[in-house]
Amino acid sequence: MKKIYFTIMILAGLVLSSCDNVPVDERLTYVEPPEVGRAVLIEDYTGQYCVNCPRATEEIERLVKEYGDSTVIAVAIHSGPFAKQKGVASPLYTEVGDMYFAQWGLSSQPVGLVDRLYSSMPFSYTDWGYGVNYEVGFKAPVSFLTETQYDPDTRRASIQVQTIGMDSARVSGKLQLWLVEDSIDSFQYMPDGSVAEHYNHMHVFRASVNDPWGDDLAVDHGQVAARDYDLVLDPAWVPEHCSVVVFLYDNTGVRQVSKQKLLNY
User: Fold this and answer.
1) What gap in Å lies between CA 144 and CA 154, rounded to an integer?
2) Is the pLDDT of residue 25 over 80?
3) What is the tens place of the pLDDT at every residue in 63-85?
4) Alpha-carbon gap, residue 40 to 30, rounded angstroms
5) How far apart, in whole angstroms, are the C-alpha atoms of residue 175 and residue 50?
6) Which residues of 61-99 are buried (b: 16+ CB within 10 A; e: fewer)?
7) Distance CA 215, CA 174 (A)
8) 167: exposed, middle or buried (C-beta count within 10 Å: 0-12, 13-18, 19+)?
9) How far apart are CA 74 and CA 114, in angstroms?
10) What distance in Å separates the CA atoms of residue 250 and residue 194, rounded to the nearest whole number?
């Protein structure tokens, strides 16, 4: 839908440039951006040593099936006590993820945040459905158009995000970009006490593309704010399995989120 909006604007400009004899008051000068559906971010704070965390993964899969993968966008952040054993970090652990875990005052797992609502009282995975159902009912105040380029020789990803103002008033907050990876083959402790040596880990948080707490951004209705970023992928990450998660948040929570594959083929 976002690409259609920009295509309309380009076509309108071409028509106007070739029709100089059209009266000024009849010329199209602005196209109202189409309303964009609200997507919801689930931050799943998980760990490979957490026996109940696969149940949270199953709940995410259920919600994605119910609402669609463009509406429910989950990020598995391996952090906290179940991302380490005897002080040794698991393969999917990140220091940034642990920083987030501490910031929200989390103590148990599995636990998560739904659009960062009630961050002082995080959701149990059994309540994520209530949070998603609540959030999808709101109009999105912004939309995102994310374009990516990847150089396999240098493993550098170049990312441009255009944030389009959809609200009647100015929208401001922090623009955050995360790199996530799907289809990671690694171990996972299971609810029955066994260890799955080849568990398929999905939407795993790998890195923050920009500052871990985002960059200041403000956009008015109909305005487009563009930001450019670069990230060099770790040799262990598979670019074909990577995506960029983009979201805007403020002190009320996450206002909108989107997900774009790193490779466009």
Assistant:
1) 27
2) no
3) 999 999 999 999 999 999 999 99
4) 29
5) 31
6) eebbeebeeebbbbbbbbbbebbbeeeeebebbbeebbe
7) 5
8) middle
9) 9
10) 41
Query: Tokens representing 118?
Result: 């009630």
pLDDT tens for 178-235 read 999 999 999 999 999 999 999 999 999 999 999 999 999 999 999 999 999 999 999 9
**Residue 26, both tokens:** 């009849």
Q: Two tokens at 92?
A: 């999917």
The gap between the terminal CA atoms of the chain, to the nearest Å, is: 19
CATH topology classification for 40-261: Immunoglobulin-like (2.60.40)
**Are 120 and 138 in contact, with CB atoms under 8 Å apart?**
no
Place of tokens 């989107």: 258
